[in-house]
Each structure stands twice: as structure tokens, then as C-alpha cells.
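re the bet — no i am not wrong, look at it urself. input seq straight from the record:
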Amino acid sequence: MTGEVGDDKLRIVKIHDGTVIDHIRAGMALEVLKILRITGEDGNVVSLVMNISSGKIEKKDIVKVEHRFLKDEEVAQIALVAPEATINHIENGQLIKKYCVELPDTLTDIMP
């Protein structure tokens, strides 16, 4: 990305190990960070893209967190604020698992 006005290309650096949360409804990435209790103080690299064009939904956000893998409870919480989100589990630079978020049958103690 050159940073010039009108430059319509965006490069998002791949992560080696961690989680990519894609297809988050535009403007909801900050809520996802709150759910995951990501403050930037733990030392993990976090990439955040907001309001990017998408083919699946009109606009979307993306969150990438290096060296962090999500628990089932966290995925359920994300499903509340980003029901169209997909979770990508990355290891050694390779996509290991990709799945859509789903709400569990029962919701208990899900909000941080």
C-alpha cells in the first residue's frame, strides 16, 4: 500500500500462527476486541481492518490475532455481535480450520 489518496489496494499481512476473524459486520470489530479482552497490553500482534469492501456482505471488518486461538465460549460471544463471521485457525502460515460462528443451544455467562 502506497498510502496515496485514491490508492484502492490494501495489503493485509498474513499471520504465521493465530486466528483470523473475517466477515465481521462493519463497525463491530471493536466489540469483538472487547469480547476477547484484547487491550494491546499482552504483547500479541493484532491487526484490525474496518469498513473494507466485501463480496459476501457490503462492508466488513477483519481482526487478526497472532498466537491466540479462540475458545468455544469466545466464538459464541462473537456470534452475538457478528453472526456472519468466519473463524480461520492458522498454524505455520497455513489455514488449518475455517468455520462459521454459531450460537450454542443454551447461552449462559457469555458476556465479559
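see?? The domain at 22-100 is CATH 3.30.70.140 (Alpha-Beta Plaits). told u. also The first helix runs from residue 29 to 35. so pay up
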